[in-house]
Specification:
There is one protein chain. The chain has a single domain (7-477), classed as Methylamine Dehydrogenase, Chain H. 8% of the residues lie in helices and 41% in strands.
């Protein structure tokens, strides 16, 4: 069976490096003087064992640093407990999103309850004063942003309970606080929504919403006054999770007859002030949300069902047994506060994923532009960048032969007047050259400004953030 042309993006980078003054084709804006830090799988194999899903591999941090038009690079494996155990034993030690750790009878008898992974492959955030790499288990890993050396698990100074979380917290610039949630499975299932002041280690529980079965929700949305949990009908069986021995995500069941529920929660008092239903659909990523004319507007990347999860197993991705589903439909849901039915409109015909906006300026407000990755043809893997004007429905595309771009991170220009005044940073795999490069685009014109070339390839990653400074003192830097 023919292997996928982008298979190099799922092959390990064996080396940890620090590279100075990378070669640049084009020019970098002189005002760009910060750091782009990203996380994602660094290897999808330990010893003779392989992880099964794209989301499973052991995390590797990557950093591009900018100064005076020059670019330096470093990459380091995140030395989580899951990583250290796997390397020490030469095998997968903890279950991941789509992979079960295989233990001997003696190991199961000595440690009968499976330990949650702290393999933080999904996103970069700040907790308190710390730079952290995070995933969907509630164990942020603190690292040194200068060296990328792993320090420790982040320690919360509270007793807010939960076993599942999101790797996409929101930051409220008016309150100078983080909002997020946990899914608590014991003794009863609930969503625990919390607020945490910037620089604090203490979460404040603002709401606990009881549910019969928790839904799989990778992200959530926030407006000026509300938090929104969108319950797609992919529900967790606690008994299956405890006793089936199946990988984490395979303990969820798709129940389309339940439809999709929009829960709107007051930031002020934690009460569920409204809920609405829509047709069944699935999403990983929200784009933005805001309040307008008695409605809550929710923009997200939607799929007809949860089969996109199966499409991202490595067997499907690498051998293309069927069409790859790697990008979805950009939808705008209208949730009236006086009606129990939510409906939607499609904002573009272009497939899109890993959406980003000018977060500091636009989150919780009406906005114009969203940036993402996309597919040039139906069934293709991610092979282009997409800029969508959600106000008039027009698109701009970047595509280069044999190139597979990653998440586009928007960086605003100093003293910017316009929403899209700045640049886009995207790590791109060039399969023909067998290396990766950092692509720099002008976010307004969508013209290519530069390619910063690495001497080797980087595996595909997921999310990251641009930081103007690594002094951990300015929360205005925070994005999703």
């Amino acid at each position: 069976m023919e292997i996928a042309p982008y298979h190099l993006g799922f092959c390990a980078t064996a080396q940890e490096n620090e590279l100075k003054a990378l070669p640049i084709q084009g020019s970098i804006p002189q005002w760009l003087t910060g750091s782009l830090i990203r996380t994602g799988p660094g290897t999808l194999k330990v010893g003779q064992q392989s992880y099964h899903h794209w989301f499973d591999g052991l995390a590797m941090l990557r950093k591009f640093s900018f100064k005076d038009g020059q670019v330096c690079f470093a990459n380091r494996f995140l030395k989580s407990q899951a990583y250290q155990e796997a390397i020490a034993k030469g095998k997968i030690s903890r279950g991941e999103f789509g992979t079960t750790a295989r233990h001997s009878l003696l190991e199961r008898l000595s440690d009968p309850l499976p330990r949650l992974t702290d393999n933080a492959t999904v996103n970069i955030t700040m907790q308190g004063e710390c730079f952290t790499s995070v995933t969907e288990s509630p164990f942020p890993i603190v690292f040194d942003p200068e060296t990328l050396n792993t320090i420790e698990q982040f320690h919360y100074q509270d007793h807010v309970l939960g076993q599942i979380t999101t790797a996409h917290p929101h930051f409220d610039y008016q309150e100078n606080a983080v909002y997020s949630y946990l899914v608590n499975l014991v003794p009863r299932c609930s969503y625990s929504i919390y607020r945490m002041d910037a620089y604090s280690h203490q979460r404040q529980l603002i709401s606990s919403v009881r549910v019969k079965q928790p839904a799989y929700m990778h992200t959530f949305a926030m407006t000026e006054h509300y938090l929104l949990l969108v319950e797609f009908p992919l529900f967790l069986s606690r008994l299956s999770l405890m006793f089936s021995g199946k990988p984490y995500i395979e303990n969820y069941q798709w129940k389309p007859e339940k439809g999709t529920r929009f829960l709107i929660i007051s930031k002020e008092n934690g009460k569920v002030i409204h809920s609405a239903q829509s047709e069944p659909f699935f999403a990983f990523h929200h784009v933005n949300a805001f309040e307008l004319d008695g409605e809550v507007i929710v923009d997200l990347v939607a799929y007809p069902d949860s089969s996109v999860i199966q499409s991202l197993y490595l067997e499907s991705l690498l051998h293309q047994r069927e069409q790859v589903i790697a990008a979805g439909e950009l939808r705008r849901y209208h949730v009236p506060l006086n009606n129990a039915i939510a409906d939607y409109e499609v904002l573009t015909s272009e497939p899109i994923e890993l959406p980003r906006i000018n977060y500091q300026r636009c989150n919780t407000h009406p906005y114009q532009f969203v940036y993402g990755v996309g597919s040039s043809e139906s069934g293709n893997f991610i092979d282009q960048l997409v800029k969508v004007d959600v106000q008039n429905g027009t698109n701009q595309l970047w595509h280069s032969h044999d190139c597979y771009p990653g998440e586009p991170v928007f960086v605003a220009a100093p003293n910017a007047i316009f929403e899209n005044e700045g640049i886009i940073l995207s790590v791109v795999l060039n399969v023909q050259a067998e290396n990766s490069f950092l692509l720099v685009l002008d976010a307004q014109s969508w013209n290519e400004l530069a390619r910063v070339k690495l001497p080797y390839h980087l595996p595909f990653d997921f999310h990251g953030q641009y930081f103007e400074t690594l002094a951990s003192t300015d929360r205005r830097q925070l994005h999703r």
